[in-house]
From TrEMBL:
GO terms for molecular function: helicase activity; hydrolase activity. Residues 292-573 form the UvrD-like helicase C-terminal domain. SUPFAM superfamilies: P-loop containing nucleoside triphosphate hydrolases. The keyword RNA-binding does not apply. ATP binds at A27, G28, A29, G30, S31, G32, K33, T34. It is an enzyme of class 5 (isomerase). This is DNA 3'-5' helicase. CDD domains: DEXQc_UvrD (cd17932), SF1_C_UvrD (cd18807). Its EC number is 5.6.2.4. It catalyses: ATP + H2O = ADP + phosphate + H(+); Couples ATP hydrolysis with the unwinding of duplex DNA by translocating in the 3'-5' direction.
């Protein structure tokens, strides 16, 4: 252990060896907070503390896994296995399962992911005959989620006239009724949604003092990473569990609190010292992650926030390169710049794909980047899209499995009762739902006892329903002897799923089959893995819980070499040698939706701080002057965050010059075919606003006005063209001049008539494909 402690600096060592009592480590990015937590746990174990008594909560399961691995290298594998470590959701799902009966849930309760919740809410809205344009199910879901995370139960809701009033003001007076119905339906179905995992844990700990005591005694030592992003529900759980022994260690950085929109409460970290007696406060100041340039630039930006704890962050690392700022004409160009920079860097410096990350504000931005990476044959992976377990075919298989352990699971049932098709239509389903609600029974129970119910269906349908019940029951019998893998293998075959996906032989069908195979492989791994851990039984419920709580980040086994693409929110806690932050434009980042109040803007700024501090060696900031958003070409101006960085840390690659609206100039944006998937005549676009990057310039409020594409933007007719080489004798090998891209050599000509395109290698802009009817080229 001594050897490992020497890998910490003095400031880090102090909190690491401070085992007893409440303590907080507040420190900036990259200063070793996560490292302190990791080494502290190893140190505690080396001092004889039983790993079963240590609970540590991380932001992602991936982070927990990595911590555990690191601890295992210090104290040995077998001991590290016994640590309670994971996200709030995964740790407390496990506890809830053990205590489920107290709350009236089956211990085999299943978990609804957001998609399941959405579907149930949509169906409730429909059953209640509400206008789905007023009651948008996603908004309703997020409202319900925020009630739950603030511990507002249905009863509390109806007791609070202010809440009812607020929803009525938002034109949703029936909000409370939907909430009530949703909660009842979930309960009846024996399922919990993500927020329930925290809400019900709170309920468990407050209603049952003996249970609280049991877990207080078990978790004598509690550690929380990324404490700044805990919500109220999580805060209360930590408080309750740590109340007896008060051995609580939290680490965090208020400057990296970025989940307020999901209920995170920055006050949890700001008020920690008031919550416990004799809190020891530790500060770390030395950053080990990034170059001086990056650290100083990040400091200069976070300095602009008014609400913050004062912190010092410095580094002994090299000066490093300045941060590169790059302007592109379009989002397509931006993608190409990023791809070509990665490509060159890889060549020149012998780097791997995994040395690079591309971070963006919104998922939609990945498309243009992906296109460019693909053209350069650079392997990449997008994180945070649809997770593997949410793909259709995978959810189909999982729904059968969910029904096996919990036939009450309504959403699972609805999903597969008629998939593969069994002739059980929507009308029958509607009858079953109405009847189930009437009898206060589950749909499955109604189906099973169809003769004793008021459901009117013909005898053919009745047989079909009974066959489905028999099918699921036969799986339940098998589940008593088979492991997860054997069971799933049997289910996919006998349910007809495989036949269904194999049927048409389309590429999609093949991909689906491959995914199912991958799922089965994963199950095999799970079964093998469970055999090694004596503690767990390796049952189906546990497997389903694992996958329900898996995030896309968790699926990454770290073996493939790819560029990482993700939103900044997802990148928290991670680090990469080279980081591109793309789409740094006003209204995109900061987001148009987050500029109304100072606190919203400050959260955007913290987000930018998180993004920048992910970089170890080099950061690139890019923005485009125009970008496709919602199918339209929108003009944009550089983000204020670029301006806010002290300019000595910046290397502005492209001069940021004034650009005025000029239809002829804009025309050649369309000339760049890769970006012009939309007919320019149909595009409405805004004039460019002044895009001046000068320190101190704050005038962002120049008037915005909309114009339709002017007449002179019409495609030039074959005979009438005079400004281009549309019908000229342009040939491969010609050297041409373009008013924006400069000189370049024609590499290829393709297409006919109005669609003639030339691929031109520009000295500065690189390879571009231009539509000749728009590109104004001059042969030189
Ligand atoms: P974030 O705020 O982004 O979560 P953090 O404070 O948790 O950052 P870590 O991820 O623990 O910081 O550390 C940042 C990097 O610095 C890691 O690569 C870590 O291994 C390294 N590091 C931390 N402390 C030391 C040290 N004393 N000596 C060498 N490397 C260190
Ligand atoms: Mg960290």
């Amino acid at each position: 252990m001594e050897k490992y402690l020497s890998q910490l600096n003095d400031a880090q060592l102090e909190p690491t060896v401070q085992i007893e009592g409440p303590m907080i480590v507040i420190a900036g990015a990259g200063s070793g907070k996560t490292r302190v937590l990791t080494y502290r746990i190893a140190y505690m174990m080396s001092k004889g503390i039983d790993p079963f008594n240590i609970l540590s909560l991380t932001f992602t399961n991936k982070a927990a896994r990595e911590m555990k691995e690191r601890i295992a290298t210090i104290v040995g594998d077998s001991e590290a296995k016994n640590l309670w470590m994971g996200t709030f959701h995964s740790v407390f799902a496990r506890i809830l399962r053990a205590e489920a009966d107290k709350l009236g849930y089956p211990s085999n309760f299943t978990i609804y992911d957001t998609q399941d919740s959405d579907r149930l809410i949509a169906s409730i809205i429909k059953e209640m005959n509400l206008d789905k344009d007023v009651y948008k199910y996603k908004q309703v879901r997020s409202r319900i989620s925020s009630y739950k995370n603030s511990l507002i139960t249905v009863r509390a809701y109806f007791q609070n006239p202010e809440l009812k009033e607020a929803d009525a003001m938002a034109r949703r007076p029936r909000m409370g009724d939907i909430y009530k119905e949703y909660v009842e339906r979930c309960f009846k179905a024996g399922v919990m949604d993500f927020d329930d995992l925290l809400l019900k844990t709170n309920e468990l700990l407050t209603r049952f003092p003996d249970v609280l005591m049991k877990y207080q005694n078990r978790f004598r030592y509690i550690l929380v990473d990324e404490y700044q992003d805990t919500n109220h529900s999580q805060y209360l759980i930590v408080r309750a569990l740590s109340d007896k022994f008060q051995n609580i260690c939290v680490v965090g950085d208020d400057a990296q609190s970025i989940y307020a929109f999901r209920g995170a409460n920055i006050n949890n970290i700001l008020n920690f010292q008031k919550d416990y007696d004799d809190v020891k406060v530790f500060r770390l100041e030395q950053n080990y992650r990034s170059t001086k340039n990056i650290v100083n630039a990040a400091n200069s930006i976070i300095d602009k926030n008014q609400t913050k704890l004062d912190k010092i962050v410095w580094t002994a690392n090299d000066e490093g390169e300045q941060i590169k700022v790059h302007r592109s004409l379009t989002d397509g160009d931006e993608g190409r710049y990023v791809a070509s920079t990665i490509w060159e860097n890889k060549m020149n410096n012998q780097l791997k794909n995994s040395d690079f990350a591309i971070l963006y504000r919104t998922n939609a931005q990945s498309r243009a980047i992906e296109d460019a990476l693909r053209k350069r044959d650079i392997k990449y992976r997008i994180y945070g899209g649809l997770s593997f377990y949410q793909r259709k075919e995978i959810k189909d298989v999982l729904s059968y499995l969910r029904l096996i352990i919990n036939p009450a699971d309504e959403e699972a049932l609805k999903r597969v009762i008629n998939f593969p098709p069994r002739g059980i239509g929507q009308t029958t389903m509607d009858k079953l739902i109405v009847s189930a609600n009437g009898y206060n029974r589950t749909i499955f129970e109604v189906m099973k006892n169809i003769d004793k119910t008021n459901v009117k269906v013909n005898s053919g349908t009745k047989t079909k329903l009974q066959n489905f019940v028999t099918l699921i029951e036969s799986y339940q019998v098998l589940n008593q002897t088979a492991d997860v893998f054997e069971l799933a293998e049997h289910v996919t075959r006998t349910s007809g799923l495989i036949r269904e996906f194999n049927k048409d032989g389309t590429p999609e069908g093949v991909t689906r089959m491959e995914n199912i195979e991958e799922l089965l492989n994963g199950m095999k791994d799970f079964v093998e893995g469970q055999k090694e851990i004596a503690d767990t039984t390796g049952n189906l419920a546990e497997f389903l819980e694992d996958v329900a709580l898996a995030t896309d980040l968790d699926a990454d086994k770290g073996d493939a070499d790819h560029v990482a693409l993700m939103t900044i929110h997802l990148a928290k806690g991670l680090e990469f040698p080279y980081v591109f932050i793309v789409g740094l434009e006003e209204d995109l980042f900061p987001s148009a939706m987050s500029m109304n109040t100072r606190s919203e803007l400050e959260e955007e700024r913290r987000l930018f701080y998180v993004a920048l501090t992910r970089a170890e060696k080099q950061a690139y900031l890019t923005y485009a002057l125009s970008r496709y958003r919602w199918g339209k070409l929108i003009d944009s101006e550089p983000s204020r965050f670029i301006e806010e960085i002290d300019e000595q840390y910046l290397d502005v690659v492209t001069p940021i010059e004034e650009r005025r609206f000029n239809p002829m100039l804009d025309a050649d944006i369309f000339g760049d075919v890769e970006d012009s998937k939309v007919n320019p005549n149909k595009i409405r676009f805004k004039p460019a606003k002044k895009a001046v990057l000068k320190k101190g310039s704050t005038n962002k409020t120049q008037e915005k006005f909309q114009v339709t594409a002017p007449k002179n933007l019409k495609p030039v007719s074959k005979t009438g063209g005079n400004t281009n080489l549309f019908d000229s004798k342009l040939v491969v090998g010609n050297v041409v001049k373009h008013i924006r891209f400069g000189t370049g050599k024609v590499m290829k000509i393709e297409g006919k008539g109005a669609d003639i395109k030339a691929e031109i290698n520009f000295q500065h802009g690189g390879l571009k494909k231009l539509l000749l009817r728009f590109a104004k080229l001059e042969v030189v």
